[in-house]
User: Fold these one by one.
Assistant:
Number 1:
Amino acid sequence: MAAVSAMAANVEVSGLAVVGQQAGGADVPILREIGFAIARGEVLALIGESGSGKTTVGLALLGYARRGCRITAGRVKVGATDVLSLPAGALAALRGRRVSYVAQSAAAAFNPAHRIIDQVIEPARIHGLLGRAAAEAKARQLFRALSLPDPDGVGARYPHQVSGGQLQRLMAAMALINDPELVILDEPTTALDVTTQIDVLRAFKKVVREFGTTALYVSHDLSVVAQIADRVAVMRHGRILECGPMADVLAAPADAYTASLLAAAHPQPRAASAGAAEAPPPVLEVAGLSAGYGRREGGAALVPVLHEIGFSIAHGSIFGVVGESGCGKSTLAQVLAGLLPASAGTVRLNGAPLPRRVSERSRAELRAVQIVFQMADVALNPARTVGAILARPLAFYHGMGGAARRRRVAELLDMVRLSPELAARYPGALSGGQKQRVNLARALAAEPALILCDEVTSALDTVVGAAILDLLATLRRSLGVAMMFISHDINTVRSLCDQVMILYAGRAVEIGPGRLGPGEAAHPYTRLLLDSVPELRTGWLDHIDHAEAEMAAGGFHLADAALPCPFFRRCPVRIAGTCDVIPPPLRPCGGGRQVACHHALVPLRAEG
Amino acid sequence: MSESAAPVGNVRRFPLLGMVMGVIVLACLAVALVGPWIAPYRPGQIVGSQIFGAMTASHPLGTDALGRDMLSRILVGARYTIGVALPATLGASLAGTTLGLLAASQGGAADAVLSRAMDVLITFPSLIFSMVVVSAFGSSVPILILAAAVIYAPGCYRIMRSIAVDIEATDFVRVARARGERNAAIMFGEILPNMIAPVLTDFGLRFVFIVLLLSSLSFLGLGIQPPLADWGGLVRENIEGLSVGAPAVIAPAAAIAVLTVAVNLLIDNLPRGWRR
């Protein structure tokens, strides 16, 4: 770090400390002794799990501490200015002009009542730097640099009229309009789908290079920052553990925690050994399942989401469902749980038809299918103790009470590797990982045959999520319970699941074994998903096929579901005159894999 | 793994302000129970020739427009103010909350019918509605309780339904539905425990409204009938004393203020663990 400081450091932070005030009035340190420097034109990544204090660092560079927090010590220098000693007026002049901020949720950062262009040029107008016409011209130039489609027309739209990935880029344009000396990017791609994330990342990288921007890139995802940052600082518990050039840290992490982050980024194979015995009978068989929201005459859904889905889940196996947001994967879980009645199709549980609605299912049928939701904290009743939450299904399904129930609650907590003392706590006093374990324990309390896991690790930090995945694999082995594992993360799913179904616009485009051998057939969309997951090495982003990426960008529209092949618009190997006329059927193509594609075989990464 | 739990304050500690207010509310309840036995004079007894008398040792709160002892009238009046307002507020809160929960958890037709029915009720101006009820059925304590409860239930329903609708959409309620829970279990087991704080706060506000409604009715002569009087009625009887600064009009008004403020401050300062 000394070497960097000697260079023309644009930003220098030293001895930064921030404390937060607890309800009782006591101060809790949030940041301790934070120090780093960013050279002009350099991108520094700040990596850490949630609660590590990385966003607090980003905000402190603006001379800002969130409500209840105070900056108690340290220095933040941007150029020659000591930010922390500035009076309020001078701070306002600094923010948005010399230091700007890009937040995680662009959708929440834009005012839905104003046109995009007015909001993008607002920083220039507030600081009185540019006239309206000049500012708009500058904005359009930035839109072009950020590869936004229709750079001249997009400004006239309202925020809800553009996609999430575009909004994130528009927010970057807003941050860059005054040519700031420092841009703070706070998890700008975290909320995006993988295929969109690549798009946005590529655009960010392009402007950073073009404009020589100095940036602090805050993220929890090492693979993402590896593509854009020159150096990386790893944070935990409010301290910087190590700081160094990106490639060096990836190759040889100095700190044990960094090493564990690197390890967690490579999914470990957790699937049961393939083809061990003859296939066990299916616990769940789904055929021709369609569902959606609203109801038309005749029973069809007003807004169809799922179209003629068919698959089966073997006893004690893990079945993965992968797709981008909006593809219908959560809808599928709700349909199977009986919360949303299907509009067509059949579901059979252990060979017997399963009624569509919760209210029509017998208690045994209800018990057999349990659901675990993504947001661990809202899935637990905050007004009930963990013990009471776990006791309810025991009483409801098994009529258990008294000491037997208390014993079983302790057993369940033990099963998910939690201390039995947690039974007395309220969910608010648990961490995210602990809450998700309690959710799992509640599902296990029913002694189900099938657990529907809806993005159960998506809201968790990498390391915590990896521990939950290990737990799922262990539970499956020890209890023999089948699971449906829904996720947007194809690598996680492939590492965990025996069978994987790929959903696109509500249709199953591929069903097959989790692990794909090299050269094995796969749907072009599967390939796109696999290619979109950032690899944990620098320079990966520069080596992906740009022509294909351009085509695949933008995500799907609801209208795609009506096309014969829903992926047609984005498909790099589409056959005009065939794929847009004849719907490709789901058909076997070897290795137990079914693919809905007119190409008999689409080899996976044929070109290596 | 970052498994550190969020810090929690002491949820059982009773804030000092809450305790003080609790003592005041308890004192008011006690007076309502035993008022006639601790009153130095009978409430209707004319104790002297002086009207709107000042505070003296024998009449600590002075005398009223007819020369009756004010302290005794307030001690006895407490049972009418509290005895009508408390059950009426309980009734309004209970009905509003239960129906609000029912509408939110059932949705569909039940929600539509209940909500529109409440809309109809809420269109009647409260004072006019109670005047009609009282003139039709006569003024008696049960009629007053019922009228006040019916008038204030729709407001409670509106608030509770909107809160319950939000809670109804959360994942833990969906988990309970997927488990196959009956609607009543979802209403009272899952949703209600998460709205205790708004239910209590609403109770406090509605209690104030009902005390004020009863005072207005008494002021119009439709409330508790003379020679008995609730606190609002005492203000009305002695309103002419205002120009001479008589304690007879100040004291019952102050009693109303103390009771309503104490109830609300008590609710706002309950231990956090009670109103999570």
Number 2:
Amino acid sequence: MSERIKIPALGEKLLEWVIPDNRKNLLIGDFEEDFIKNCEEKGKRKAKLLFWIQFFASAPLFIRQSFAFKLLLLSHAISISVRNLRRHLGYSLLNLFGLSVGIACFVMIILYVQDENSYDRFHEKSDRIYRVLDFRKVDGSGEESSSAPTPLGERMLVDYPGQIESVVRFFNFQAPTLALAYQGESTIRQFNESRLYFVDQSFFNVFDFSLAEGDPATALDGPNKVIITSEMAKKYFDYDDPVGKILRFEDKNDFVVSGVFDELPTNSHLKFDFLVSFETLNNPDVLRTRLRNSWIWNPSWTYVLLKDGMEPSTLEAQFPNFVNTHFPESRRDRVKLYLQPLADIHLHSKLDYEMGPNSDVVYIYIFSTIAVFILLISCINFMNLVTARANTRFKEIGVRKVLGGNKKQIISQLLTESFFTSFLAILLAIPIIWLSTPFLNELTNKQLSFDLIQYPTEMLWLLIVFLFVGLLAGVYPAYFLSSSQPSQAIKGDPNHRGTSGNLFRKAMVVGQFCLSIILITGTIVAAKQFDFLQNRDLGFDNDKVVLLPTLRSPLMDKYSSFKQTLLQHSNIKALTTAEDIPGMKYQTGGYTPEGSTQELQFPRLIVHDDFAQTMGIEMAAGRGFDKSHPSDADDAIIINETMVKMVGWGSAEEAIGKSFDNEMVIGVVKDFHFASLHNPIGPFVLQRVGDDPSSLAFSARYIAVRIEGGSIRETLAFIEDQWRSFVPNTPYEYELLDSLLLTQYQTEATLGKLTWIFSALSILIACMGLFGLASFTAQRRIKEIGIRKVMGASTSGLVLMLSASFLKLVAIAVFLAWPVAYFSLDEWLQDFAYRTDLDIWPFAVSGALAIFIVFLTVSYHSIRVSLINPTDTLRDE
Amino acid sequence: MTPISRTEEMLLLMVCKLQEDAYAMQIREGVKEVTGKLYSIGGIYVPLDRLVLKGYLEMQDIESTEDRMGRPRRKFKITGEGLRILKETRQLEQAMWNLPEDVLEKIKLV
């Protein structure tokens, strides 16, 4: 018999892999015996064949047996885990709760991030839908418009039939609100609607929105049809059979309700209440033909659906040619068209004239970071508590080793424990998530839900969290405990009890608090920045101004008598019109300053007399528009100080009388923030609106009223009464300018609240861990403290001594966290044109706060241990 | 008495027959010789384990022998209980086979 006869190596590997541990050698031996015998009797080749036949005949059985054996081991390991949890029930629960809260935070942030990322992706063709952008800039100044000229959409469809499948335009005159009314049998319901759009018939071919009533093929086919959402069906008709009913638009045109939407998905940047068929706009009564066909005015949000397999870059490459063919001569040098992917709009688009406020991908990054931080902090808690409890576990592990347990078994026992805890934590986290999602929804204005049945992907997230937490929390303790020597382990030799473990734990505590302090510093700075934005002097007086939306309102026909009437009230100091919300939005126009040959694109507002007075803007030189100069509408212009500097006219006084696009500069206003504080103050132009009704109706989106003194409510009631007597069939509405301006910082405000909550939770979780850790340390030094007391140490000295070891760690964490926080916050603040100073206070406060909280946490145990009578602890020695 | 199956009966008898040679692989060979049925290497342990569990067999792992690369082999031995069940089984069968001669001839069993 030759020594060299051996079963195939691969076969041996496979056998080792499938046969249960308890009879591995025995069975491989049997295979070998059989193989050798076959070799001798039938030759090696046949024996090999027989071996594989045998292997495949036996393998299913082996696998089944292995599985049963593993299950047995697992149930054993879990029962030990349960015993270990129960031995220190209080701390185990604390630990588990911390971990659950961490997991719950993590999952909720994931829900939020997932929702943000899902915007506009529910359309089946979403990856082929692009929005056409219309940038008009000269020398870096001008507009980056998210909307395009109205005829552009139909033109593109004609010019690029091979590349574009469909075009949908959204049009609303870029009006803040539009008036609608329903005349019922006994009631009239009239409202100003802010989410009404005229859209092309191809809407349903491009986007996936479904109708509860009506036929998508015909609902937008032909003029004067409107599809409404179910909320609007309730608002106007009480759900009472809306299809076929009539809605009166601007007291002039009748629209027939042709459909009702199903509940609209919230994760869409297209938010609308009414969609009117685009053909309606061909009626000159609704939109004057000149405006309908204008290539200069760009109010239509235009979405193109590319044909399958078409690259947007191929189409974009042809746009310069398109601009030269269709745009008027004067605009060709500055118009650049781009395609923006639909799914990028919500997180990446910060353009002019967006349909609504978008989110920002920066917040996604910030929240994802916070989510990982919190999960890490809670995992570290678990890790630290397990290693800190090592002294109680060492004996168990030593005995296991002595009885022949190998390292692998011990590691698997400890990993089973951490996975078991992770599993329990997830079970506990699920109700926490359920209970707190309404709260999160309230804060973020979303409709997030954690529904495991409806969204199986969330199950996947839980699985990932389970594996991540189980592994991260278990690997180190498993390695640390399993590598101890049995003799030392059983003796519990304190010198070998894990100095490395101690160091590791300390490093982890430092890491945890480092993360917490970064979050707290971030929260304080975010709050400070928000406060700064809210309280910064805007260069005008926004808190006494009321805006009345008036675009396309019949009131504008009677503007001057309306103005006269209002000014009779003693609390109304001044009144003007504005093309957009001052301090928030603006339009742009092309102007050629004296001394320049090129027409430049500048932000501007077209306003009426007394604008500076109404808004409380100071003049640097010259005068404002007023009624004594009626010709201002044609030949006068007002600019701001930045414009003076930019053109290079030396001083404001020098600028007066200079020509600007054939109009004369009659005044220079001191710089004021005509847009949000995200942007620096740039050059700015004020022009006076013409007094003819059509200019007023088109360029006056708002009437701005300055109210000073007296009761605001009484004055507002007066304005409403006057409005009703002037235009009884137009709904009345007003906005307070200061609260309107605050909405610009809505994202910052929400972010501030969320970071506040999550950083508070992070430090809470970190402290839960520290609380447990402190108790174990105090317990371990209980005899040392007894001896110190006997030798005359004071209680306060002992408390200080015990707390000091933790405070040292937190102090290190503070110093590590500061630079990280500084650089990342500095980065974040760079996004703001006007930012609060990054001074020492947020850092000092967060550091002091962390040290204070840690002191409170650990001093509980320190005081408790220091107060124990030494005779109790030293008695048995 | 719980009756044992044909297979169990055969395996117990095989263990008795092989005596000092009653290792799993040898039992498998023996079964093949008698019945022509070849158990898979893993499969032979299933009924043997069951017999051990029922207390009719006892087993012993014998440390390395040269022809198995130092791996142990499992040796089976019949217990008193096993012998008792074998005897009972035999009596039962004899009782059942105890048919009158004329019946045997009539159905041509002989």
